[in-house]
Amino acid sequence: MKMFPGELEFKGIKLDKLEMKRFLNGWLTDKHIDIYVAAIMEQYQSKEIKILPAAWFKEKISLHHTVEEYEKVMEKACLLIPVNIDDQHWVLLAILPKEKRIVYMDPLGNFDKKVFQNVKKYLQMYVYLMTQSKLKEKEWQLHIPSKSSIPLQTDGSSCGVYVCLYIRQIISQTELHFDF
């Protein structure tokens, strides 16, 4: 019985047969996250939140961007970045530029220092492009929610679903109950 078409497309994001199979097996890829983000952003239409594509972190964190690109992204109240660590585990970063705060949300309750270091590189590039000076790291705060303050996965494969739920909670302005 054929349940799904060979390919699915939403907002210009295409899922092929292999991606559909991964989805049905509970494994979310960059494109699955991006389709979810496109749908949720269409529903809530938040102008204060920018969500970068799921592949952005691994593909573009080290590439040069124009000053205008940095300005557009960093003028938002909240910048959300879904990150797939080594194609094995999803986490969500929330950068709050006006508050100079980075929130690291891991559905397992862990922390990957490498991800944080790469985000700091991005912020350093931004600050340098905007001000021709170095990032004052002491002004920025890293927040890692306690394990009791956010929903955590209880299996080894639902991290992508939890990241989607974190995104939805933030966009819909439902509190995540951070313990800071």
Structural features, described:
With 180 residues, this protein is of the alpha/beta class. It has a single domain, classed as 3-Layer(aba) Sandwich (Adenoviral Proteinase, Chain). The protein has 6 helices and 7 strands; from the N terminus they run ββααβααβββαβα. α2 packs parallel to α6 (159-171). The longest helix is centred in the last third of the chain and has 19 residues, at 113-131. The radius of gyration is 17 Å and the shape is globular.
How do the helices and strands line up, and which of them pair or pack?
Elements: E1 8-10, E2 13-15, H1 17-24, H2 30-44, E3 49-51, H3 56-60, H4 67-74, E4 78-85, E5 89-96, E6 101-105, H5 113-131, E7 141-143, H6 159-171
Parallel strand pairs: 3-4, 6-7
Antiparallel strand pairs: 1-2, 4-5, 5-6
Helix pairs in contact: 2-6
Structure, briefly:
The chain is α/β, with parallel strands linked by helices and 180 residues long.
Please state the second-level CATH architecture.
3-Layer(aba) Sandwich
- List unreliable stretches of 5+ residues: none
Assign the structural class, choosing from mainly alpha, mainly beta, alpha/beta, alpha+beta, or little secondary structure: alpha/beta
Overall helicity: 25-40%
Shape: globular
How much beta, percentage-wise? Answer: 15-25%
Protein name: Ubiquitin-like protease family profile domain-containing protein
InterPro entries: Papain-like_cys_pep_sf, Peptidase_C48_C
Keywords: Hydrolase, Protease, Thiol protease
Pfam families: Peptidase_C48 (PF02902)
